[in-house]
Every structure is written in structure tokens, then in C-alpha cells.
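call fold target=ClpP/crotonase
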Amino acid sequence: MSFPLSFPTDRPFVTVTHPNTKLWVIELHNGADSRLTTAFIEGGLKPALDAVEKDWRDAWRVSFAQKSKTGGEGALIIVGNRSQNKFFSNGLDFQSVVSDPAIATTFFPVIFNPLMRRIVTFPIPTIAAINGHAFAAGMILSLCCDYRVMTDGSKRNAWMCMNEIHFGAGLPLSLTSIIRTKVSDARLQRKIALEGHRFTPQEALEGGLIDQIVNGDTEAVIAKAQELANTVSHLPRLGSYGVIKRELYRDFLEDSCRDVSRSDAASEDVAAKARL
């Protein structure tokens, strides 16, 4: 496989690079803020993940067959658009989702939840290089990764936030489930989901939402993510990394298959009127 790769090839949303034999980098560049649209996910992110896994597995099979003690290593970094230092991802293009009833009722169970499951169970360590704001589904995307490295916001502000409460949107089961899975403190869950708090990088670190803070711009965040990748890339050598994650996160995986429709404040009020 020859890198870099672009998905889709005619109008790339995602670029995949392979800096060394045990590291892959997926860069999101659906505009500056990398909103998670259907086209972006289906035509960009999912095929990019497939390409990384295929390339790793091709090398892993050779290493496993030869009983190598050093082969089969790997780690994946996901980073926001490298041409800016403002956004990791600005979340869903909410208006485009809710404006079309057909999309609104199928987006999570058909489009977004499979992406979440794909990243959560990815067979090599995944690191979100959060080089700016991670809002709503952008924050969720980072939580699906195994590790998170974030800018300290010294160049410009950077926040993590689930802001649905502020515009009257409900949270699908899959999103609440990944929050419960990755955030064990109920007070922190409340702050995320019910208060829509904007976490500064320092607050995110203190709350365990991220693993490391980096002083600097996007390239500094990527460099720190690469340092972290070097310390964990040996873990999938024997092929059980993704297998263990499927059991570790079984509750989330089952929950994410149960989303059947989207609910918001308006639909909740209609149901309440019918009930009361």
C-alpha cells in the first residue's frame, strides 16, 4: 500500500500518512472544523480506518507467522486539520441532520454508531491528537479513542464540550453510553451531559478526560501523540488488543446497537402532551 492516501480520492476529506513502520496518522480536513457529516464519515473516515487496519494486518500476519518478537507493532493517531490550531472537530452538522427526517432517524444507528464501534474496537492503540476545540460529536470521537493528547490552549482557546443541552437536543443512547464507559465519575458525567460545561485543557486533564497536555500548536500535539504511540505500539503484537477491547467495552457495543431513533425537546414535548 502506497502512502499518503486520500479519501475520497477526488475531493479528500481525510488523508492517511504512514510516518514509520508502526505508526499511521489520519488527518481530518472536512474544512477547517471537520464537521462529522454523512459524506465525511462514509467516504472519508471509515475507508481510512479500513486502509490502516489492512496495512497493519498485512504486516502483522507476516510477523505472527515468523514468530517475530518485534514485528506486528502499531498505533494510530487521529488529528484535526493540520493547517489550523482551532478545531479537532466541531461535531455534527446538526442542521443538516435534523432538517431531513430520513437522515435524522437513521444517522446514529446507520452512520455514526458503526463509526464509534469501529474506533472503540480498533485492533491497535488509537490516540486523539486534539489540536483545538472538540465539541459535541467531536468530543465523542475523541472519547472513542484509547488515549487523548490535547493542546494547552496557549496559542488560542481550546475546549471540550457536549453542548446539546444548550440547544435543546437529546443525546442518543450510544453517546450517553460512551460517556458512561469512558467517564466513571457521576459528577463529571452530570457536568458533561446536563450542564454542557466547556472544559479547559487543564480541567479535562484533572477530570481524566485527556491523558496529556501539550504546550504548543498542532505539530507539537502530534509530536507528543507520537511519543505516546511509541510507548504503546508494542501492545497489539500478539493480536489480542482489539479482542480484549470488545469485551472491555461490551456494554457500550450493545447499547450502540439499540439506538433506533433520535429524540429532542420538541418530540419530548409532543409525547408529554399525549401522556398528560
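return ok
The domain at 5-275 is CATH 3.90.226.10 (2-enoyl-CoA Hydratase; Chain A, domain 1). The two ends are 61 Å apart (CA to CA).
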